[in-house]
Design goal:
Blueprint: H1 10-30, H2 37-43, H3 48-59, H4 63-81, H5 86-92, H6 98-109, H7 113-120, H8 129-135, H9 141-144
Helix pairs in contact: 1-4, 2-3, 4-7
Length: 150
C-alpha cells in the first residue's frame, strides 16, 4: 500500500518553484498591466491562496508587494526623467489610485513622489545610469531592518 503524506514531493516542490518563477517573470514584464493574484494564479494553474503562500515562502513577500515594488522602481526612473507629472507616472506604471501609489512610494522610498521628483529630476552627469539605478533602488521593509532588530 502506498504511503500517503501531507508533504509535497521534491518533484512537486520543483514544479511549484518553476511556476513561481513564471509568475515573478510575468510581474516583471507586465507590471503596468492590471494584475491581481487571481489572474496570476490562473496563469500557472494554482489557487490564489496557494500562490500567495508559496510566493511568500519562496520570495519573502506577497505577489502584490513584489508587483508594487516593481511599479515603484519604474516610477522612480520616470520621475528622475522629470518630464511627467506624478499623476501621469502613477498611471504609466499601472497604479489605478494616486493615493495608494503615493503611500506605497513614500513607504518604500522614504519621501513622497513629488519631493523625489523635485530632488532627482536634475541629471547627474558624473553618475552612470547603471550606478544611479542601483543606488536609488527602493528598499523593501524587510531589507530596511537592521540585523540586530530582527
Amino acid at each position: 500500500m502506498p504511503r500517503v503524506t501531507s508533504r509535497p514531493s521534491t518533484e512537486e516542490r520543483l514544479r511549484d518553484l518553476a511556476r513561481l518563477r513564471r509568475v515573478r517573470d510575468r510581474i516583471d514584464r507586465e507590471y503596468a498591466q492590471p494584475l491581481d493574484v487571481e489572474a496570476l494564479a490562473r496563469g500557472v494553474h494554482m489557487s490564489a491562496g496557494h500562490l500567495s503562500r508559496a510566493f511568500r515562502a519562496a520570495y519573502c513577500e506577497s505577489p502584490y508587494s513584489y508587483l508594487m515594488t516593481r511599479r515603484i522602481e519604474r516610477a522612480m526612473a520616470l520621475l528622475r526623467r522629470g518630464d511627467l507629472s506624478v499623476t501621469e507616472v502613477c498611471f504609466e506604471v499601472g497604479c489605478a489610485s494616486l493615493g495608494t501609489f503615493s503611500s506605497r512610494f513614500t513607504e518604500l522610498v522614504g519621501m513622497p513622489p513629488s519631493a523625489y521628483r523635485r530632488e532627482t529630476a536634475t541629471p547627474s552627469p558624473e553618475m552612470p545610469s547603471c550606478v544611479s539605478k542601483q543606488v536609488t533602488r527602493p528598499i523593501r521593509n524587510r531589507e530596511a531592518r537592521s540585523p540586530g532588530r530582527g
